[in-house]
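TL;DR need structure tokens for one chain.
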Amino acid sequence: MIEKIKAGLEYIADFYRTAPVGETLFLMNAGPIPFTYDKPLLIGINILGSLICVHSTAKQFKLRRRLENSVSEHGYDDRAFETTILDWCDRQTARVVTKNCGNLDDYVALCDTNRERMSLANLRHF
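>> reply
TL;DR here they are.
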């Protein structure tokens, strides 16, 4: 029973780690919607913001699926993960994939060697 709970919490954490910015902004936009039903402009802005965040989150999950397929077909290869080095959100998604497949150390080494190309290189990971 405890293992199922731990696995569920790890799944939720990986879900959030895959698209941290999109999920956070979605919660910030969707949260006030029930409280702004009498203000059409504000509710419109919140709904539009939520939709943009859903699009951003879907983009990150497509990247995750592509990386997972690459790892399952060919194993870990630095060339598949080099495209994720530039953007912080892409790095978080790649960390989830490499952690789940057991190659997190290889990905960290790849990031360390390409630190000058990274945006927000000093921003910590989840």
